[in-house]
Amino acid sequence: MTDRSALQTRLEQGIEALGLRLSADAVPRLLDYQVLLERWNGTYNLTAIRDPAEMISRHVLDSLAILPYVQGNSLADLGTGPGLPGIPLAIVAPGRQVLLVDSNGKKVRFLREVIRSLKLEGVRALQSRVEDVEGQFDCITARAFASLADMLVWGGHLLAPQGIWLAMKGKAPDEELPGVPDGFTVRGIHTLNVPGLGAAERHLVVLGRANE
């Protein structure tokens, strides 16, 4: 098991490289989340990433890389898995209502334990298919969830009129852009430089309603 101080250094250096300014309690709480993820992963197989240092880079810092684009008072994280990017975003930017959605019961049980252990106010975990979720949200996040076309067909009803959809991708999804359904438009595509990922490509597609 990697020493917590080494993980803290990796996390703090990554946050600095991303140019983020976080509250004093954010780093220890992010590390607490990583510990829970590592502990539960042994039994529940929540992620293929086993190495704690890799969890910091590939999960926590990867999630935090989109923080500058998050907006509004409510956020839905669709296909959240073990809470990515929703849990790290909720930790570093409290006060927003966050709904974590996944159809996998084991992952939702883990999410509820994280919410309880870290006392994450305003954060809920829902076991559901995306198309069955109700409500509207100022910001929707989806990380490696589905194609742009599928995620918008399944979850487009959840996006508030002025809301933004943040789709996290690996390589630039040029071939997916023609499939964006009517009623939605691509606002921008941003390259994310995530500390610790080396040459791995990460992109963020920002979408919104076409009539806005």
In words, what does this structure look like?
The protein is of the alpha/beta class. It has one domain (4-209): Rossmann fold, CATH 3.40.50.150. It is built from 6 helices and 7 strands; from the N terminus they run H-H-H-E-H-E-H-E-E-H-E-E-E. It has helices spanning 4-17, 26-44, 52-64, 86-92, 105-117, 148-155, and strands spanning 74-78, 97-102, 123-127, 137-143, 159-169, 184-191, 203-209. A 7-stranded mixed beta sheet has the order 3-2-1-4-5-7-6, with helices on both faces. Helix 1 packs parallel to helix 3 (52-64), helix 2 packs across helix 3 (52-64) and helix 2 runs antiparallel to helix 4. 37% of the residues are buried. The mean pLDDT is 95.
Query: Per DSSP, what share of the residues sits in E-state strands of 2 or more residues?
Result: 15-25%
The number of distinct helices, counting runs of at least 4 residues, comes to: 6
* N- to C-terminal distance: 49 Å
The Cα radius of gyration reads 16 Å
Number of strands: 7
Mean pLDDT equals 95
The third-level CATH topology is: Rossmann fold
The residue fraction in helices comes out at 25-40%
Q: In the CATH hierarchy, what is the superfamily? A: Vaccinia Virus protein VP39
